[in-house]
Design a protein that fits this description.
The protein has a single domain (2-394), classed as Sodium/glucose cotransporter (Up-down Bundle). The chain has 21 helices and no strands. It is an all-alpha fold. It has helices at 2-19, 27-32, 39-50, 53-67, 72-101, 106-113, 117-137, 140-149, 154-202, 206-214, 236-248, 254-261, 266-291, 303-306, 311-316, 321-355, 365-393, 397-422, 428-447, 459-480, 486-493.
Length: 511
């Protein structure tokens, strides 16, 4: 039964990819769906790109174990900051200015917003370096679940997932990814609710499980009674850094922001904001909420021997075969949707921002599309090979790189992108400063953590601090460096001044 469900799932994914070939005949169609994607598809594409197996298996297990039920704050932060505020603050302005600048990627946006080819190349290099390990880490959360549910070697799972994702992305581009994301998102919504209900039921229901969690103690963490069932948990400061990294980080991730480039119209932004927020509240809130009960299974879990990735699979291993199949499809959906989003962002960035004009002069439309499709294969192959090497050699550092990738990308891009949409005085120098600081500090944290202050030795904390620091670096450097050419900037910001007619139900207007 479980294998039959998997085969049906894969058949639907490929069928959608082939169906969407007509939308992927040029670069804009392949990368942005022709900027005509509606609210439901865009919101689900945003949400499913946000949450992968890394969140469901890795982060939910790790932070649920560390902070107990208070880990749910991470999911709430993902919904309010990472979804609601991201859509409200970035959505409309991103759609308008990127169309005005005719940019399809984040590096291309920086290059045209500041009239700097060097800035575009630097941004594309940062994307290339830090999206690859993130892509590889997506496979990690699947290994234990497949080992628990199927008598299939995990190597086969990696290869199968890579090949099938490549087929539907190459065939249908962004539109195929968006439609598949919608289906995968529905599976995630239903799956997480059913799984939470089943796990809590196995422990006597919510109240009984919460009472049981209140009895759990760990002197190495806190001596306060009932700390794992408390409102803020045993370590509110580090929990705050988790919320910042996993929530504010989406504002600077190319594969997330690029979703706003493709929104169809104003109505899609309004509806998409609500849909995306509810999706994040259910999926992310549900994942961290579920992980918060992990210590109820402490008699079956050996963290020192098996790590935090063993928490969620252990909680699920005694569910029925039908529910386990649902969980596997849920996590597979989350991972494949994020993988497809990442490889489109990576391949389009490398083609449009790095190869085009710099190495291949006057690259034609069809040639660009061919390169993007070829690079989709290359990126998926590299990530699969890295995942296989990790699996065979039991290397653990790749999983840690997910936090470093988020911290570096958002630390480098979040502040310059945000200020560029709103503030005319943002300078090229401030972008360089943020790029160097954000990517640089995360590289130091990865290669020489011993020289970092104690609070920044954790990639989570370091990434959160890099993002917040960028919000200060950009305005300070902008005020201290030469102002951009006034006429050039005014021309860019005219995109916000263009008048448009709206219905009275949307705006009362002036009498």
């Amino acid at each position: 039964m479980k294998v039959a469900i998997l085969i049906l799932y894969f058949a639907v994914m490929i069928g959608i990819g082939l169906y969407c070939r007509k939308h992927a005949t040029d670069v804009k169609g392949f990368v942005l769906g022709g900027r005509a994607v509606g609210p439901w598809l865009t919101a689900f594409a945003y949400g499913t790109s946000y949450f992968s197996a890394v969140v469901f298996v890795g982060y939910a297990g790790q932070f649920g174990w560390k902070y107990g039920i208070a880990a749910t704050w991470a999911g709430i932060g993902n919904a309010i900051i990472g979804s609601l505020m991201a859509w409200a603050i970035l959505g409309r302005r991103t759609r308008v200015m990127t169309q005005h600048l005719d940019s399809a990627t984040m590096p291309q946006f920086f290059g045209q917003r500041f009239d700097s080819k060097a800035l575009k190349i630097a941004a594309s290099v940062i994307v290339f370096i830090f999206l690859i390990p993130y892509t590889a880490s997506l496979y990690n959360g699947l290994s234990r679940l497949f080992g628990m549910a199927f008598d299939i070697d995990y190597s086969v799972c990696i290869i199968l997932m890579a090949v099938l994702t490549a087929i539907y992305v190459i065939a249908g581009g962004y539109m195929a990814t968006a439609i598949n994301d919608f289906i995968q998102g529905m599976i995630m919504l239903v799956g997480i609710v059913v799984v939470i209900a089943a796990v809590l039921s196995s422990k006597g229901g919510f109240i009984e499980a919460l009472n049981g969690l209140a009895q759990v103690s760990d002197e190495n963490v806190s001596t306060a009674p009932g700390i794992f069932a408390s409102f803020f948990g045993p370590d509110p400061l580090n929990l705050m850094f988790v919320v910042i990294l996993t929530s504010l980080g989406t504002w600077g991730l190319p594969q997330m922001v690029q979703k706003f480039y493709a929104i169809k119209d104003e109505d899609a932004i309004k509806k998409g904001t609500i849909i995306s927020t509810i999706f994040a509240l259910v999926v992310a809130g549900g994942c961290y909420f579920l992980g918060g009960f992990g210590r109820l299974f402490s008699d079956q879990i050996d963290i020192k021997a098996n790590g935090y990735d063993s928490v969620i699979p252990t909680m699920l291993q005694n569910l029925g075969s039908g529910l386990i199949a649902l969980v596997v499809i849920l996590v597979l959906s989350a991972s494949m949707s994020t993988l497809s989003s990442l490889v489109i962002a990576s391949s389009s960035t490398l083609t449009i921002d790095f190869l085009k004009d710099n190495f291949i002069k006057d690259m034609k439309e069809k040639t660009q599309l061919l390169f993007i499709r070829v690079l989709v294969v290359v990126f998926i192959a590299i990530s699969a090979i890295i995942a296989l090497i990790q699996y065979k050699s039991s290397v653990t550092f790749i999983a840690q790189l997910m936090g470093i990738s988020w911290g570096a990308l958002a630390g480098a891009f979040l502040a310059p992108f945000l200020y560029s949409l709103y503030w005319k005085k943002t300078t090229k120098a401030s972008c360089w400063a943020c790029f160097i600081f954000g990517a640089g500090i995360m590289l130091v944290d990865m290669l020489a953590p011993s020289i970092m202050p104690p609070i920044m030795k954790s990639p989570i904390n370091c990434g959160a601090i890099a993002m917040l620091a960028g919000l200060i670096i950009v305005p300070v450097v902008s005020l201290l460096t030469p102002k951009p050419e006034e006429k050039f900037v005014e021309d860019i910001f005219t995109c916000y001044d263009r008048e448009t007619v709206v219905r009275v139900k949307d705006s009362l207007g002036n009498e």
